Amino acid sequence: MHKGNEGVTALWPLELRLAKSRDHLTVMWDDGRSDRLDAEYLRVESPSAEVQGHGPGEKKLVAGKRQVRVEAVEPVGNYAVKLVFDDGHSSGIFTWNYLRTLADDHGERWARYLAELEATGSRRDP
C-alpha cells in the first residue's frame, strides 16, 4: 500500500501481466491478491468518455467484443495504464483504483452488462 496525494492509502500493483493470448490481464497487488481481468470486460468497462459518457447515466453499451484483445499496456505516470485494444480503442486510462474496482465489482458489473445485451437484443459476438 502507498500513500496517495490526498493522504489516503491506496492499493498498488506489483505486476501487470498481459497473457500471451492477449485475452486477459493479470494484476498482482501489494496486499497479496491477484486478479484476472478479461480483455472483453476491460473493453466494455473502459473508463473512457467514449464508453462512460460525460456524466451520470450516459454509459454506452459496447457490444460485439467477445474476441477483442489487448494489443499494448502503456504506463501513465505512476498511477495508471492506458490499454490499447485491437479494435482501435485506446482512450481509456485505467487507474490502479479503477482496476481494483473492476476486480471487486466483476460479478455485479458483468451480470448487468449481460442483462443490457439481452434487453437490447445485442450480442457479445461481433
From TrEMBL:
Residues 17-100 form the Gamma-butyrobetaine hydroxylase-like N-terminal domain. One of its GO terms (molecular function) is metal ion binding. The keyword Cell division does not apply. The keyword Transmembrane helix does not apply. InterPro entries: GBBH-like_N (IPR010376), GBBH-like_N_sf (IPR038492). Pfam families: GBBH-like_N. Keywords: Iron, Metal-binding. This is Gamma-butyrobetaine hydroxylase-like N-terminal domain-containing protein.
